[in-house]
Amino acid sequence: MLAMPRVPARLIPALLAVGVLSAQPPQPECAIDGTVVNSVTGELIARARVMAMGKNGQSSTTADNAGRWRFTNLACGQAQIVASRPGFLQGSLGQPRLGAAFRPVILAPDSPVHDAKITLTPQTVVTGRVLDDQGDPMMAVTVTAMVARVVEGRRMFQNSGSANTNDLGEYRIPNLVGGKYFVCAHPNVAGADTDSTVVQERCFPGPVEGGSASAMDISGTTARVDFNLARVPAVKIRGTLSGAPGRGPALSLFKRTPTMANRMGTQAVIAPDGKFEIRGVSPGSYLLSTDYWEAGKRLIARVPIEVGGADIDGVNVRLEPAFTVTGTVRTELKQSPTPAGRPLNLVLRSSDPASAGGQIAWSKTRDSFTVNELTPGNYRLESIPNGPLYIKSATLAGRDISKEEIPITQAAGPVVVVLSDDTGSIQGHVEDSDGKPTACWIMVLPANDPLARLARNVMSGPDGHFNIPNVPPGDYNVYAWDDWQQVEYANPEWMRRYSAPVSATVETGQSVQLKLREQLVPVQ
User: Fold this and answer.
1) For residues 191-226, b (16+ Cβ closer than 10 Å) or e, as one string?
2) Which of 511, 522, 516 has the alpha carbon at shortest distance from 487?
3) CA distance 447 to 478
4) Where in the chain is the domain with CATH 2.60.40.10?
5) In the chain, N or C: fewer CB atoms in 10 Å?
6) Which residues contact 1 (CB under 8 A, 6 or more apart)?
7) Which CATH class is domain 424-517?
8) May I ask the CATH class of domain 235-319?
């Protein structure tokens, strides 16, 4: 056998550049093929764009007229395959439905994957026409589609899309996900209102306050919603704004419904003596709000108003200084040295959206903090998991503000916060309904804390294994969900009806081992 000649070191970079030498052995390539399918009709979707993303970047192709696609030169290992097509919402291989956990495909050498199916959901469209009470088209009316979403374990309606009507009164809102909807029309035409009447906002099928039971369920279709907006008697709100050290505060009236159409508010006309008037108000729930800065200090006022069919007089809006809550922090370390560069994230939350929680400002030594610009309300101190530390207690006026909401109406403190690292962990495996390992979302909730608003969520691996470190001692309910974002964990009735928790008691330095079965979130 002939010996290979020795290559001079000075020639190696040039030979690598032209491919004579290889810096590493060639990597095996893997293949996958499949189809793109309409999730509603089951029909194949022609000419969809398909992308494959793996450890070596991404590749793309286009499905043929029969909806078939193929990749032959992908890096082996874990990969994500997604598809898109105008008129459809993007879909992913291994995703049983929109929003559910992505289950990666594993590509192995000499084992090509065949007939993989990606489902695309047709976009939902809301269209229609807005007329006045005389049957004439209304231009520049904002129409908003409100979809039910779960936020911090509570189902509420949020703006999913909006459009303004044209000169024919027509509107079209495309690219909506399927779900339960309210559609609301809010007139924005300058001069549409008079001193005596106002064009009233209207929602279909009914008031948003009716909740999911009153909403319409639309998915993958074009829903037509027409409006006839009627005039109603206009209400005037009169009162006095006081407490301002100088002239210049602006007073706004915001509607306390989630339509988002009136998010800019209606401005009050304020006289030099502080008397104010707001005209052209339709019946509903409102909030009078003002924020005013004077010499670097914030003055605020929040006054709820219920408007019926009669004028409202004598409303007193008094500006009060925003206040500060102070706190001190003591750390009790039992398992590790002081974590460097990973401070605990603290949040002072209020259940009332009208209350303003300020930003937490830490001292340089991080043994004290202040929360500035607070408004009166009920507050609870919470932490976002970040490393081994957690809030063991947070005492204010003899009560633990980390375990319950406490009313705070003026400057208070210090909140004595005790942090600890005496945590344990929760580990285990999760299987699907067929008993096979699966990737899904693992949710951990305190068993005896109905006010908890920050669920702990991690995803299991493709082999079904999961590990949740730094869990404070206590009793927990553990769940495996296909889509944690749709879990109404703050709704006790929903949880009793649909969830099947596995109990776990975590002790310091111990690891709890669990076996879970994946649960599918019911379509609401």
Assistant:
1) ebbeeeebbbbbbbeeebeeeeeebeebbbeebebe
2) 522
3) 9
4) 29-122, 124-232, 424-517
5) N
6) none
7) mainly beta
8) mainly beta
What are the residues whose beta carbons fall under 8 Å from the beta carbon of 444, sequence distance 6 or more? 426, 455, 456, 457, 468, 471, 476, 477, 478, 504
Residues of the chain with CATH 2.60.40.1120: 235-319
What is the phi/psi pair of residue 207, to 5°? -60, 140
Q: 138 near 130, Cβ under 8 Å?
A: yes
- The answer for residues whose C-beta is within 8 angstroms of residue 11's C-beta and 6 or more apart is none
Q: Parallel, antiparallel, or unpaired for β 390-396 and 377-384?
A: unpaired
3 state DSSP class of 492: helix
Structure tokens at 487: 């879990």
More confident: 13 or 29: 29
**CATH number listed for the domain at residues 323-420:** 2.60.40
- Class for the domain spanning 29-122: mainly beta
Q: What is the distance between the alpha carbons of residues 472 and 452, in angstroms, rounded to a whole number?
A: 14
Phi, psi angles (nearest 5°) of residue 308: -110, -135
- For 112-137, letters b (16+ CB in 10 Å) and e give ebeeeebbbbbbbbbbbbbbbeeeee
Distances (CA, A) of 447 to 45, 291, 442, 451, 477: 46, 40, 15, 11, 5
Arch. (CATH architecture) of 124-232: Sandwich (2.60)
Residues 6+ positions from 212 with CB-CB distance below 8 Å: 148, 155, 180, 524
Q: Which residues are bridge partners to 301 per DSSP? A: 290
Using a pLDDT cut of 70, give the percent of the chain over it.
Answer: 85
What's the rounded Cα separation, in Å, for the pair 462 and 325?
Answer: 45
The CA distances from residue 463 to 439, 442, 450, in Å, are 7, 14, 32
Q: How far apart are CA 255 and CA 240, in angstroms?
A: 20
Alpha carbons 513 and 258: distance in angstroms, whole number: 43
Phi, psi of 12 (to 5 degrees): -60, -45
User: Which pTM does this prediction carry?
Assistant: 0.75
Burial group, residue 291, by CB count within 10 angstroms (0-12, 13-18, 19+) = middle
Q: ∠308-310-314 over CA atoms, to 5°?
A: 100
Which amino acid makes up residue 503? S
